[in-house]
Write a structure and sequence with these properties.
CATH topology: Rossmann fold
Number of domains: 1
Helix content: 40-55%
Low-confidence stretches: none
Radius of gyration: 16 Å
Largest sheet: 5 strands, parallel
Mean pLDDT: 89
Shape: globular
Structural class: alpha/beta
CATH architecture: 3-Layer(aba) Sandwich
Amino acid sequence: MPKRKVFYSFYFDDDVMRVQQIRNMGVIEGDEPVSPNEWEKIQKKEGGVKKWIDDNMAQRSCVVVLVGENTASRPWVKYEIEKAWNDKKGLLGIYIHNLSCPKKTKATGSGTCKQGKNPFDDFTFTEDPNKGKKLSTVVKCHNPKSSDAYNDIKNNIGDWIEEAIEQRA
């Protein structure tokens, strides 16, 4: 089976090192990271971040929200979730709080963080047949084994993505 092209949604400041681990697994094709200098340029342009998200998400079949401790509160993550759903893309979440982050290890000694809130809980359907239900009742947010989160993600992410794409088909 060919590797799916996905768009990763995450909170850069907190989780970029954890996300890089997932990119390096080589199981799927994800959006390439933007260099800090390029990201600065994108942010300075009026509408630059929105355009970058729209352009990059257009070429992807699935959006994978990588959920750290503060991901659910991030405005661009919320935008990416809403856009993915409205564009009928596969959509899923993966909790990444149990992946070790070298940056956090220096600060806290453990490298992990608290499990974040399910970002799909913040969206409610406004139309039947799911009117009033939360998006989290339809979109899965996978919680890998705390004892071996890395290998659990590596061994299952491909199937999780296929399931999310099939759900939207």
